[in-house]
TrEMBL record:
<keyword id="KW-0677">Repeat</keyword>
<dbReference type="InterPro" id="IPR019775">
    <property type="entry name" value="WD40_repeat_CS"/>
</dbReference>
<feature type="repeat" description="WD">
    <location>
        <begin position="145"/>
        <end position="187"/>
    </location>
</feature>
<dbReference type="GO" id="GO:0007015">
    <property type="term" value="P:actin filament organization"/>
</dbReference>
<dbReference type="InterPro" id="IPR001680">
    <property type="entry name" value="WD40_rpt"/>
</dbReference>
<feature type="coiled-coil region">
    <location>
        <begin position="479"/>
        <end position="506"/>
    </location>
</feature>
<dbReference type="Pfam" id="PF08953">
    <property type="entry name" value="DUF1899"/>
</dbReference>
<dbReference type="InterPro" id="IPR015505">
    <property type="entry name" value="Coronin"/>
</dbReference>
<dbReference type="GO" id="GO:0051015">
    <property type="term" value="F:actin filament binding"/>
</dbReference>
<dbReference type="InterPro" id="IPR015048">
    <property type="entry name" value="DUF1899"/>
</dbReference>
<keyword id="KW-0175">Coiled coil</keyword>
<protein>
    <recommendedName>
        <fullName>Coronin</fullName>
    </recommendedName>
</protein>
<dbReference type="InterPro" id="IPR015943">
    <property type="entry name" value="WD40/YVTN_repeat-like_dom_sf"/>
</dbReference>
<dbReference type="InterPro" id="IPR036322">
    <property type="entry name" value="WD40_repeat_dom_sf"/>
</dbReference>
<dbReference type="Pfam" id="PF16300">
    <property type="entry name" value="WD40_4"/>
</dbReference>
<comment type="similarity">
    <text>Belongs to the WD repeat coronin family.</text>
</comment>
<keyword id="KW-0853">WD repeat</keyword>
Amino acid sequence: TWVFTLILEVFSSDNLCITDDSCTLSLSLSLSLSLSLSLSLSLSLSVSLSLSLSLSLSLSPPDPLQVIMSRKVVRTSKFRHVFGQAVKADQCYDDIRISQMTWDSNFCSVNPKFVAMIVEASGGGAFIVLPLSKTGRIDMSYPNVCGHTGPVLDIEWCPHNDNIIASGSEDCSVMIWEIPEGGLTQPLKDPVVKLDGHSKRVGILSWHPTAHNVLMSAGCDNVVILWNVARGEAAVRIDSLHTDLIYSACWNSDGSQILTSCKDKKLRVLDPRKGTVIAEKDKPHEGSRPVRAVFVSEGKILTTGFSRMSERQVALWDPKSFDEPLTLQELDTSSGVLLPFFDPDTGVVYLCGKGDSSIRYFEVTDEAPYVHYLSMYSSKESQKGMGYMPKRGLEVNKCEIARFYKLHERKCEPIVMTVPRKSDLFQEDLYPDTVGPEPSVEADDWFAGKEGKPILISLKDGFVATTKNKEFKVIKSLMSTTSASMKELREMVEDLTKRVTELESKN
């Protein structure tokens, strides 16, 4: 009788919350009653009390603030479901002997017309240039570009002329080549321009994004040279800032600044024409292995490097406040250098590690933690190098936002990055106006101080070259007279002009 009285008091208690789940409550209490009849009095009381306590907790309403916070855990992004896919085997470039050099460059450069890859060559350095449509097995007798006397370390297509490519080599020279329409039909040995100025091997090349015929090169002599290619001369020579090997060098979006990373563990933002330091950061990453750096949106800088424990890291910096990184994330413990490729139109950065078999991609935003992991493309075979297609070379009707050209031991495999969309219409949010091939300033004007912003084009109907490539003009007299200096040539012209004037006055 006393037990039944206690159960009735529990039912009538004000602390018991009765909601729409009253059927579940009565079932649980009846279970406690059956247990109390078969067990001792003390045990039945403990079982009944514990059940009533658990019911009161489970029936309490959820906190609305917790519900709102839980919905904000997943960050919305239209690039969250970007997926990478390798093309079919018949669309790859097979039977190509990729260079075995251990230099940390891309080994591949691509534009809407051609793909170029550094290959093994006997008796010097060479690279192969193929039209994009020439897929399948490449015959061993296919002609190469083979003018260097040492292994080629880096190649870079000109952004303003799809037929012009630059190459840097262990023979300390930089050469400019003009590839005929349709590709090579015979080996190309004579460059249009040969640029001599480095005392050690040249491992980094980068064309100016907006100025025509301006090329930057960096060598193992710790020197950065800005070339006026059309004149075949070094216009700016930065040789006193870097005290050790230069790991990477790149331009910002309008070419008004240069960013370098160096073995002396310093990150430098330079004024290219003055050759002075605008900002400097010591030890962006604590590890001793190579650091790579690129400009991203709004002038910020993204770096990849290593920690003291040799863990690979990615960090984002604001050059206005270089003391602490905006974010610093550890990725893994692999030893390959991460090559960053940034897409300013989408804000997505792709990290491709040499020797890795994967491509990670992140979105760079203004919200903490600023660098948001999106996904990863993985394959079975590791990559020896990577080429990155400019945005104007993509297929916009297939929602393709990036395309990589992955180098294997014996082939080149295109990898397509796609945003899944149901509609076949042009996706304006994926393809804002992007940088076109037209330069905004000439080399002489840029070196004189004139700035040039990128000229943007729309990809709504796909990229179509409405005008011929920007003509590559070279002052031939300068190229043929390699022993004469610029001053001597000017004096020669002045003397000839005086003689002509005198002869005309006599007549």
